[in-house]
Amino acid sequence: MNWHERIVVDPEVMGGKPVIKGTRVPVQVVVGSLAGGSTVDAVCDAYSITADDVRAALAYAAEMLGQERLYALPGG
To answer: Is the pTM of this model over 0.85?
Structure first.
């Protein structure tokens, strides 16, 4: 999945958060909805986006996590 065609970052839209192109739907909301148990169809219906948009959001999130250094928090 080439997320570059479907995910945009624009300082004028949602404060520069990555969103689904042509919408104000943040990638964070899409991924969070899926993590919370929503189905792809439910997310698409709730935010008027396509299944390809959802896959692009997941691909974007996966790539960004691959570029980050993550550290375990003590006591967790």
So the answer is: yes
